[in-house]
Design goal:
The structure holds 2 protein chains of 2 kinds. By secondary structure, chain A is an all-alpha fold. In chain A, about 70% of the residues lie in helices and about 0% in strands.
Chain lengths: ~350, ~300
């Protein structure tokens, strides 16, 4: 509003020059105006199918890394982890495209994802990486299978050679989805564009270790294998606790945490992820370390809780992001989305 | 059917009644491939007639949406969508700067803001940069168009757009948005909305010419005492920030961008790709080290 005598309003300049080479920095004058409270942005069309892909793809990528590390230690007692990790990785990468293609709104054109490579698009980077990872993961798993059957060292050595690029691709597969969400305009995701890939990667490692733990208990692997997996799970649980807390604080400071505090997302986040996914495993592992006693049942419970919590994390991030895009007040206060 | 007298002046017309460069007559600009074209929307001239919305729907054969009264002044369209590519916003300024009810009419628009919102055809375009199939491309007229025979509805362009323009259409499964009447441009016609606008609030032309015209208009308004007029989306102004160099459809506004439902400082999302990928890789390197520690030894 301006009065007839040309009183200065928040935007525009007093002088007659139309030069606005300096971006107006009067953003601090923002008093919360919106356009009838209507959203500015459109929410992403992603739902449970994508949340499921994030969960499964993360396990696939992280499993390959853990399998390769276990292989490098050269310890015979880690061979179960290498074997199970490579098979789990293949299973994950075979399931992933099913979720992704089902989510497309014109699924019969799924192959157009490989029509071009666009380095500015994490979805393009991911499509190609997923394809490469699928191939490498498949070859590695096949060589592992031959190594298990034929018992000749050459198969294990060739598998190790293919596992190296597979591991690199796996690192991308486990984390690029966080970058994908961060490279949008949705305030919750855009602000966390560096922390989200980190948390997704850590959660992928946690869920992968949990899946390997369940596999170890189910197939009667040695106690040493189980103990090492539990040690890994305990360490990752601690890292995940810190990363999740850092992300929460980052969102709070950006005044963007409101979507995570509204039911039902809040319940899923606190009960599903924070409690089941982080607190329960940390508690179980903490008790185990403190008392020195390792219970098979407790280990299985902690692993199951981690898996459920990991799925809740992906679901919550997707749904909270959609809510975030619908909140104009959140978007308007993000001047430079991190 | 007789030939229109104006058409007779163009003896090189192949067909009677077709004017090869009609935009030269209606918009004052020839349309040639290789040049940048766009809109300058002067909201101080908008009368809120919504001829642009109607012309866009008619030319592009877009379906009508749910008929409803929103209660938001005269804006019953609500927002841009997959089937609405022009949307006129109405803001009634009933209160003055002090929060009291205005007791006198402002010189322009009687305390009423009206703006015809449209796809900004950004340069560089976040939607284009995010599209993994290459369906979104930049045309020879420097506009951004979704190729309907390539799009597979992945929907990644939807959250990428910092202005909330593009949307995936549910029945059809593909992303849609304003094409800046690409088909009309190829035929030498200016876009339907610009042609229909009765006050020339929507001006079509070459970007550099539009920008000059816009700056002169802002100077003129400032000289008349309307000091809150400014450009949104021109190079180095609000709306063209943080990696988005300019909007090919830019505006002259007279209030905060948020009031018009526009972000003051949108950013180019692809700038967050590399830092994100590196952060992820560093994290997995740390995980690998953790695994070495956990799996080695007893």
């Amino acid at each position: 509003m301006v009065s007839p005598n040309g009183e200065r309003a928040p935007y525009g300049r007093q002088d007659t020059s139309a030069d606005q080479s300096a971006v107006d920095s009067s953003h601090s004058n923002y008093r919360g105006e919106t356009y009838y409270g209507r959203p500015v942005l459109k929410p992403s069309p992603y739902g449970q199918l994508i949340a499921s892909y994030l969960f499964v793809g993360g396990i696939a990528g992280a499993s390959q890394i853990i399998a390769t590390v276990a292989d490098w230690t050269g310890d015979r007692r880690n061979r179960f982890i290498t074997r199970a990790g490579r098979y789990l990785s293949l299973a994950g990468i075979l399931a992933s495209p099913l979720f992704l293609i089902a989510d497309l709104r014109t699924p019969e054109r799924w192959y157009n994802m490989l029509r071009i490579f666009r380095r500015t698009s994490p979805m393009s980077i991911g499509s190609w990486t997923l394809s490469a990872f699928g191939g490498l993961s498949g070859i590695t798993a096949m060589l592992q299978f031959l190594a298990d059957r034929r018992r000749r060292p050459v198969y294990r050595r060739v598998a190790r050679a293919f596992a190296l690029p597979a591991t690199g691709a796996g690192a991308i597969v486990a984390t690029y989805t966080g970058t994908l969400l961060g490279s949008t305009s949705t305030p919750l995701w855009a602000r966390a564009s560096r922390l989200l890939p980190a948390l997704f990667g850590i959660s992928a490692a946690a869920t992968s270790t949990a899946a390997l733990t369940l596999a170890a208990h189910a197939s009667g692997a040695s106690r040493i294998t189980a103990r090492r997996l539990e040690r890994l799970a305990a360490m990752i649980a601690g890292i995940e606790f810190l990363a999740s807390a850092a992300l929460d604080r980052h969102w709070e400071r950006g005044h963007l945490a409101a979507p995570l505090k509204q039911p039902p997302t809040a319940t899923a986040y606190r009960a599903g992820y924070k409690t089941l996914g982080i607190a329960v495993p940390m508690l179980v592992h903490g008790v185990s370390v403190a008392t020195g006693r390792r219970s098979r049942r407790a280990s299985i419970c902690a692993a199951a809780a981690t898996l459920i919590g990991g799925y809740f994390l992906r679901s919550v991030i997707i749904h909270a992001g959609r809510d975030s895009a619908r909140r104009p007040e959140d978007y308007f206060q993000v001047t430079e989305a991190d | 059917m007789s030939v229109h007298p104006r058409a007779r002046e163009y003896t090189e017309s192949l067909l009677p009644g077709v004017i090869p460069q009609e935009a030269e007559l209606t918009a004052g600009t020839r349309i040639e491939p290789g040049r940048s074209y766009g809109f300058f929307t002067d909201t101080t001239l908008c009368i809120g007639c919504k001829a642009c919305e109607v012309a866009c729907k008619e030319w592009n054969e877009l379906p009508a949406e749910e008929f409803k009264l929103t209660g938001d002044s005269y804006d019953n369209t609500g927002a841009l969508s997959a089937t609405t590519w022009r949307h006129v916003s109405f803001i009634e300024k009933l209160k003055d700067a002090n929060g009291d009810r205005a007791t006198e009419l402002a010189p322009f628009q009687s305390n009423w803001l009206m703006m015809s919102d449209v796809c900004k055809h950004c340069s560089p375009a976040p939607c284009l940069e995010s599209c993994p199939t290459g369906a979104l491309f930049r045309t020879e007229f420097d506009t951004v168009v979704v190729q309907q025979d390539i799009c597979n509805g992945c929907g990644y362009c939807v959250p990428a757009c910092p202005f909330g323009v593009v949307e995936v259409n549910v029945p059809d499964g593909k992303a849609h948005k304003c094409t800046l009447c690409y088909d009309r441009l190829k035929g030498g016609l200016e876009p339907a909305c610009a042609k229909a606008c009765p006050t020339d609030s929507i001006q079509f032309g070459e970007i550099s010419a539009l920008h000059d015209r816009a700056r002169k208009r802002v100077e003129c308004l400032h000289a008349q005492g309307r000091s809150d007029a400014y450009l949104y989306g021109a190079r180095d102004t609000l709306g063209a920030t943080n990696g988005i160099n300019r909007l090919n459809a830019f505006f002259l506004l007279t209030d905060r961008p948020e009031v018009y439902n526009l972000p003051p400082q949108p950013s180019l999302p692809s700038r967050r790709v590399l830092p994100g990928l590196l952060s992820g890789l560093a994290t997995m390197a740390a995980i690998a080290i953790t695994a070495i520690v956990a799996l080695a030894g007893e």
